[in-house]
Amino acid sequence: MKLATWNVNSLNVRLPHVLDWLRDNPVDALCIQETKQEDSKFPYAELAAAGYQSVHAGQKTYNGVAILSRHEMADVERGILNFEDEQQRVISATINGIRVVCVYIVNGQAVDSDKYMYKMRWLDALTIWLANELKKYPNLVLLGDYNIAPEDRDCHDPAAWVGQILVSPREREAFQRLTKLGLHDSFRLFEQAEKSFTWWDYRMMGFRRNFGMRIDHILVSDNLKEKCESCVIDKAPRKLERPSDHTPVVLTLT
Question: Is 2-253 CATH 3.60.10.10?
Answer without folding.
Answer: yes
